[in-house]
Amino acid sequence: MADLFGLNNFLFLMGGFKVTLEIGFFSIIFSVLIGTLVGIARYLRIPVLGHIGSLYVDIVRNIPCLLCVLIARFMTPLPPTMSGILAMSVFTGAIMAEIVRGGINSVAKGQFEAALSQGLSRWQIVYHIILPQAYRNIIPPMVSQFTTVIKDSSFVWAVGTEELTGRGTILIGRYSDTSHLFIIMGCVALIYFIVNYSLSLVARWEHRRLTAKSY
Amino acid sequence: MGVNNPFALYKWQALFDARDIFIDGLTTTLEVAIGALILSVLLGIIFGIAGVFPNKFIRVLNRVYVEFFQNTPLVVQVVFIYNALPQIHIVMPVLLIGIIGVGLYTGAYMAEAVRGGILSVSKGQLEAAMSQGFNYWQAMWYIILPQAKRVMLPSMANQAINLVKNTSVLAMIAGGDLMYQADSWSGSNMYYGPAYLTAGVSYWIICFLLSKYINKLEKKAEV
C-alpha cells in the first residue's frame, strides 16, 4: 500500500498529466485559430474558402474524435504527441467554427453596414468591429469547449500515447487489488475534475459578468 | 496504384471481403447508441427535474451528478467501469458497459438541457397549474415540460449526436463496435485508408440522419 503512494507513481502520473496539458494547451490554441478563420471565411462568404470551411465543419462535426486520433496517428508521419495535437485541433476546430459563427451572428447586422458606411474595408470591419463583439458573447461556450478538449484528449491513449488516462491505466495493470484500482482511477478522475471544474467556474463567472453588463 | 497509395484498389477489395466484420461493428454501435440514448434521456429528465426541485438535497444530487460526469473524461469512466465491475464480481457484456458508460455520461448533459428548458418556462406557470389542483408531478409533466421542449430539444439533439460519436469509446475496451473493428482490422493489415473512410462515412450518415430527424421533431414542437 505504501508503495502505491510512492514518489515514483506520483511522478509517473504527473508525466502523463504533462502530456495531457501539452495536447490540451496547443489544441485549444489551434482550434480557436481554426474556428476563427473558418468563421470569418464563412461570414464574409469568401469564394472557395468559405465553401471549404463549411464542408470541413459539416464533415468533422459528424465523425468521432477517436477517428481523428486514429487517422492522425496512423496516416501521418507525426510523432505521438504531435499527432494528438493535430487530431484534437482539427476535431475541435469544427466545433469552434460553429461557436464563432454563433457569436458573429449575434452581432447586430447594422454594425457591419454602419462600419461599411464609414469607409472601413471588410477586413477592418471584421477585425475591429465584429470579432471583438462576437468574442465577448462566446467566451462562455468556448471555455466550456476547452474542458471538452481536456477530457477528449484521453482518446489519444487509444493509439498508445501515454497521457494521464493512459498512465493511470498502466498503473492499474501493476496492482491487482480492488482498492488500488479505485484509488488510482480516483486520483486520475480528480486531476481532470480539478482542471475542468476550474475552467467551468471561469466560464460561469464570465457568463454572469457578461449578462450583468449587457442589459 | 502502388503499395504506397492508402486507398489502393486491392485494399478496398480486402475490406469488401471482410464486410461482415464491419457490419457486425456497425450493429454493435447502433445497439449501444440506441440503448445509451434511451438511458441518457431518462437520466436527463430525472436529474433535470432534480435540478429545479424545491428540496435542496435533491438539487445537490443533481449538481454532484452533473459536475462529476461533465468534468471527468468518458474514457476514464468507461475504463473504470470496465475494470471495476469484475472486481466486485459483476460480469457484464461489453455492450452493456458501453450503454451504461455512455448513457451516464451523456445523461449529465441531457440533465443540463432539461434543467435549462424548465428554467426558461416562467415560474408563474407552475404556480398557476398547482392552484388549479395539479400536484407537482402533474404540473411538471403536463404543463412545464411540454413548454420546455422548445428550448430543450436543440441542445438535447446536439448531445444525441455527441452520444453517437462517443460510442466509439468502446473501441478502447475492445467493445466490438464499428471503430474497434475498423481499428483492429486495419491494425492487422495496415489498410488504414479504406477502414477509416468506411467508418467515418458510417458515423457521418448516422449523425446526419439523426440530425435530420431531430430537425423534424423540432419543427413539430414549434407548432
TrEMBL record, chain A:
Domain ABC transmembrane type-1 stretches: 17-203
Superkingdom of this protein's organism: Bacteria
Transmembrane helix is among the record's keywords: yes
UniProt membrane topology term: Multi-pass membrane protein
Single Gene Ontology BP annotation: amino acid transport
A cellular-component GO term for this protein: ATP-binding cassette (ABC) transporter complex
Major site of localization recorded for this protein: membrane
Gene3D superfamilies given in the database record: MetI-like
Transmembrane domains' residue ranges: 23-43, 81-100, 181-199
Keywords: Cell membrane, Membrane, Transmembrane, Transmembrane helix, Transport
InterPro entries, alphabetized: AA_ABC_transptr_permease_3TM, ArtM/GltK/GlnP/TcyL/YhdX-like, MetI-like, MetI-like_sf
Gene Ontology MF term list: transmembrane transporter activity
Record localization: Cell membrane
CDD domains: TM_PBP2 (cd06261)
Family: Belongs to the binding-protein-dependent transport system permease family.
Name of the protein described by the UniProt record: Amino acid ABC transporter membrane protein 2 (PAAT family)
Lineage summary: Bacteria, Bacillati, Bacillota, Negativicutes, Selenomonadales
TrEMBL record, chain B:
InterPro entries: AA_ABC_transptr_permease_3TM, ArtM/GltK/GlnP/TcyL/YhdX-like, MetI-like, MetI-like_sf
NCBIfam families for this protein: HEQRo_perm_3TM (TIGR01726)
Gene3D superfamilies, per database record: MetI-like (1.10.3720.10)
Lineage: Bacteria, Bacillati, Bacillota, Negativicutes, Selenomonadales
Subcellular location as annotated: Cell membrane
Keyword tags: Amino-acid transport, Cell membrane, Membrane, Transmembrane, Transmembrane helix, Transport
Transmembrane feature ranges: 32-53, 90-111, 191-210
Keyword DNA-binding part of the UniProt annotation: no
Domain of life: Bacteria
Database matches in Pfam families: BPD_transp_1 (PF00528)
Primary subcellular site in the record, as a coarse category: membrane
Span of domain ABC transmembrane type-1: 26-214
Gene Ontology, cellular component aspect: ATP-binding cassette (ABC) transporter complex
A Gene Ontology biological process term: amino acid transport
Full protein name: Amino acid ABC transporter membrane protein 1 (PAAT family)
Stored PANTHER family: GLUTAMINE TRANSPORT SYSTEM PERMEASE PROTEIN GLNP (PTHR30614:SF20), MEMBRANE COMPONENT OF AMINO ACID ABC TRANSPORTER (PTHR30614)
Annotated membrane topology: Multi-pass membrane protein
Organism expressing this protein natively: Pectinatus cerevisiiphilus
Family, similarity comment: Belongs to the binding-protein-dependent transport system permease family. HisMQ subfamily.
GO molecular function: transmembrane transporter activity
